[in-house]
Design a protein that fits this description.
Elements: E1 2-7, H1 10-17, H2 20-27, E2 32-37, E3 50-51, E4 61-62, H3 64-76, E5 81-92, H4 95-102, E6 107-111, H5 120-125, E7 129-132, H6 142-153, H7 164-168, E8 186-187, E9 190-191, H8 201-219, H9 221-226, H10 231-246
Parallel strand pairs: 1-2, 1-6, 5-6, 5-7
Antiparallel strand pairs: 3-4, 8-9
Helix pairs in contact: 1-6, 4-6, 8-10
The protein binds S-adenosyl-L-homocysteine.
């Protein structure tokens, strides 16, 4: 998949991409991320990219010209593009959105705001959609763009070591993940659940499924309303409910 990030702070985005899984994905050619400095599209001596808001009030507003010119350059390259504005006013990002983006064939252009935001004409005439990473306000869209890139890229087949690992993560099948343990088998007064040491794979699978259901029921009951449970899941849910009554 292909991204191009438009930002006044390219270093923040590059730092997030420079290590580990994303770096390997880029080396394998599964992910391409170009980070473009919007100051390259300013034309004055001071590389001015922001200005005071019309109508007064505090703070500065990112000027429209650098963003429009950067997008013109990208469009002139001839590829299809989908233009996304990072914004606290956008649709809240989640697994479903990450999966959808991971399958996108067009280049995803992520525009990062700073200061009070970007001149509204960018949103009005360039942007296909706005994405928020949550109901809070960041000082800039760079971290949000990095979050979107990382979450989507790890769902591209081949990016993770085994494709399976994304499938077992939280949200993939509508449930939270089951708990994980590693050596030592006994740490302080805390033993690892016996079943995980039993070598009985059928039992381990069943235990994990039950724990995933339990975690979801306890921490995110809202998710259970949206997920379709099979016969085994229903049986496990019955057991969990009975165990809850027992104490
Ligand atoms: N005044 C704006 C916020 C500006 S914050 C408002 O209240 O709507 C500066 C920039 O940070 C934004 O332009 C956006 O690109 C980015 N940003 C802030 N919070 C974000 C969030 N929750 N998700 C995605 N981007 C965000």
């Amino acid at each position: 998949m292909k991204f191009e990030v438009l930002t006044l702070f390219p270093g923040i985005v590059s730092a997030a991409l420079s290590d580990s899984i994303l770096k390997k994905a880029m080396e394998k050619g599964l992910l391409e991320v170009k980070v473009t400095d919007l100051r390259d599209f300013t034309h004055d001596r001071h590389n001015t990219a922001d200005d005071a808001p019309f109508g007064g009030g505090p703070g500065m507003v990112m000027k429209p010209e650098p963003v429009f010119e950067a997008v013109d350059r990208i469009k002139a390259e001839g590829e299809c593009v989908r233009i996304i504005l990072m914004s606290p006013q956008g649709e809240v990002f989640n697994h479903k959105k990450a999966l959808e983006l991971s399958r996108e064939k067009c280049k995803l252009v992520l525009i990062c705001g700073r200061y009070e935001g970007i001149d509204e004409r960018v949103r009005l005439s360039l942007v296909d959609e706005e994405i928020s990473i949550g109901d809070f306000v960041l000082s800039g869209g760079e971290m949000a763009a990095a979050v979107v890139i990382e979450a989507a890229a790890r769902l591209v087949p081949g990016v993770l070591g085994t494709d399976e690992s994304a499938e077992l993560d939280s949200f993939y099948d509508g449930l939270l993940d089951y708990p994980h343990y590693t050596r030592p088998a006994q740490y302080r007064d805390m033993p690892v659940p016996d079943v995980l040491l039993s070598g009985n794979h059928a039992e381990i699978r069943r235990w994990r499924r039950k724990e995933a259901l339990k975690a979801t029921m306890r921490k995110r009951p809202d998710l259970l309303e949206k997920v379709e449970l099979g016969p085994e899941d229903k049986k496990l849910m019955g057991e969990l409910e009975a165990e809850m009554w027992e104490g």
